[in-house]
Structures are given as C-alpha cells and as structure tokens.
Write a structure and sequence with these properties.
Layout (H helix, E strand, L loop, with lengths): L2 E7 L8 E7 L6 E10 L2 H7 L16 E8 L11 E4 L2 E3 L5 H4 L11 E2 L18 E5 L4 E2 L6 H4 L5 H11 L7 E5 L3 H13 L2 E6 L5 H7 L3 E4 L3 H6 L4 E6 L7 H5 L2 E9 L12 H4 L4 E4 L5 H14 L5 E4 L4 H9 L6 E5 L4
Parallel strand pairs: 10-11, 10-13, 11-12, 13-14, 14-15, 16-17
Antiparallel strand pairs: 1-2, 3-4, 3-8, 3-17, 4-5, 5-9, 6-7
Helix pairs in contact: 4-5, 4-10
Length: 347
C-alpha cells in the first residue's frame, strides 16, 4: 500500500516547481522509511529539471542530498533501526552483480545505477527525490550520518561532499601535493575543505577574487582570479591535480597548461555543451583529462566519517520550500554561499 506525501515537483521541463502530492511505496523487507529533515539543492537538480542534460521524466521531484531520521524499517533490515540519523545520495539502487558494483563502485554500474530521481526503479515506477518529507530506500543505499554532523550541514555532503572527496582521494591529494580547485561554489567549497583536510597545498581558481576571504577561511592556501591573464602565466606547470567543479564551458587547453608533467585535470562539473580540446595539451607533459561521478556507498560512508572526524560539513543557507524557485535562479547567478538546503518541514 502506497503512502501519499507532500512534495515540490517540476510539472514539466523548465516549469517552476510547485507543491504537489506523490506516492511512496510500502516499506518492503529490506527497505528503510526516512523522515526527511533537510534536502540540499544541487546544480544537477536545475540541469535535470530544465532538461539541460537531455530528455527527463516529469513530473520531477528533484533532490539527492537527503538527511533525515529512520521512521520504519522492513523485517529484513539489519543495518538501521528507528531513530537512526541517515542520509541518501544520488542513487537508490544498482544491479549489485556487475564487476563495478561488486567492487563498491555502484555509481558506475554497467547496467546503470538507479538515480534518486529522474530514473525508473526496478519496480518500473519513476523515482522521486528529496524535495519531500519522506522517502523509502533499500537499506543498502542508505548511509549513516555521524553524531558529530548536524543534519542540515550534512545533507549537501551526500552529493557535493562525495563528488569532491572521491576524486581527491583517487588522484592522491595529500601532503606534498599541490591541488587547485576550480570554481568556488557548492562543489568547490567542499573541495577546498576536503583537500585541506587531506593535507594538500590548496589553491582556488575562481573568476574573480570576490570570495577570496571565504576561500582562505575554508582552507585554501592561495586564491587566484582566472579572469586575470597573468594567472595562467604565473601558475604554468604548478599543480599535481586540478579539480574542476565548473558547469560552464572552459578553455581546457589553458587549464591543462597549469599542470605539472604527469598531472591530472579531473572534472566533476558537467557542462551542457560539448568541449573543444587540442590533444597536444595532454600529450605534451603526459597529462590526464579525466572525469569522476560521486562515489560508491562504502566510500560515501567513509567521506561522512572523514568530515565528522575533521569537524566540518557544508556551508549552507537554509530556506523554506516556497523559496526553491528563487534559489534556482540564485544558483544560476552564483548567488549562494555555498549550498541551499531546504527545511522540509516547510513543504
């Protein structure tokens, strides 16, 4: 038996989000019912609600940065109990059988992971995300939020945190490494915090110096404006790793010139437009242009524990549900420091 739940949904592509009611499935044997307390707004929500990444499923309830409390568990659930503090990120299922799933990289499931929203579950029904008050998720795709993190600042970690933590770990950010974070927004500010906590020397590359004080406060050692051509002259051949969090088209040849020989430019921002690249930008210097997409469930738990151990979550602006459409416009105008989080009690 399904349960009606209040939510905010985009009824059609590019349409304003509006309050509505959705149906959540009954709690199955291995399911966890979560009372959502907070839901972050990710730029990905905007891309998908406006079909910037291609055809999407409507009505759409976005939201894959979910933090809440377990309200009910299925008879076969062993990992969680009522009252536990938990989170849900960008996926709610995968095939669990392919090589990638078995390696703990469910995000790269060869059959396609099931997104928290704008996807179709194994039951054939569309998935609905976190801009709502309740969600039912298989226990294997739920993570535990450590007591050291408040739920509101933990919510964005379920996407912004893991999206930056995973490539920083994979590409060896740490003591003795020079890491640049390109973009000082929802993803970028977490990249700065995490790279600093990992022990790297951190530089922010941003269009302007407008957020320099924030960048230094959050852990950056250096801060440069990419609008200044001298930046590319002064920093040529400097970095072991550049983490690009930008969702706009970039001059990748220019940014690749900032890498040391053997360095890597890893993209977690996903522009809607194709990029242009001169391959000599990577051939000369044996450089790598790579991409990364969130992390597996085990690594997401590792990231949450890491953030709690180092005493930080996201920098947030808490909003009411009726401010979602305004928040979308502000995200597009880079007018948020640094993640909007919806108080779902206001839905």
């Amino acid at each position: 038996m399904t349960t009606p739940v209040a939510a905010y949904a985009a009824p059609a592509p590019k349409a304003p989000l509006e309050r509505t009611t959705i149906e959540r499935r009954a709690v199955g044997e291995h399911d966890v019912l979560i009372d959502i307390k907070f839901a972050g707004i990710c730029h990905s929500d905007i891309h998908q609600a406006r079909e910037g990444w291609g055809e999407a499923i409507f009505p759409m309830v976005p939201g894959h940065e979910i933090a809440g409390i377990v309200a009910e568990v299925g008879s076969g659930v062993t990992k969680y109990k009522v009252g536990d503090r938990v989170g849900v990120g960008c996926m709610v299922d995968s095939c669990r059988e392919c090589e990638n799933c078995k390696a703990g990289q469910e995000q790269y499931c060869t059959k396609g992971m099931v997104g928290t929203y704008n996807a179709v579950g194994k039951d054939g029904e569309p998935t609905y995300g976190g801009y709502t008050q309740k969600i039912v998720v298989d226990e294997n795709f739920v993570v535990r939020i450590p007591d050291g993190l408040s739920l509101d600042v933990a919510a964005p970690l379920l996407c912004a945190g893991i999206t930056t933590y995973s490539p920083l770990k994979h590409w060896g950010a740490g003591p003795g490494k020079k890491v640049a974070v390109l973009g000082m927004g929802g993803l970028g500010h977490m990249g700065v915090k995490i790279a600093h906590a990992l022990g790297a020397e951190v530089t922010v590359l941003s269009q302007s110096l407008r957020k320099k004080d924030d960048g230094l406060r959050l852990g950056a050692d250096h801060y440069h404006a990419t609008s200044d051509p001298k930046t590319f002259e002064e920093l040529a051949g400097t970095f072991d790793l550049i983490l690009s969090t930008v969702s706009a088209p970039l001059d990748f040849n220019a940014y690749l010139s900032l890498l040391k020989a053997g360095g890597a430019l890893v993209n977690v921002g996903a522009p809607e437009e194709p990029i242009s690249l001169n391959l000599f930008s990577v051939i000369g210097g044996g450089k790598t242009l790579a991409g990364s997409m969130i992390g597996g469930i085990a690594e997401t738990q590792e990231m949450l524990d890491f953030c709690a151990e180092h005493g930080f979550g996201a920098e947030i602006e808490l909003i009411r549900a009726d401010q979602i459409n305004e928040a979308y416009e502000r995200v597009l105008n880079s007018d948020v420091r640094y993640r909007f989080v919806i108080d779902t009690a206001t839905i």
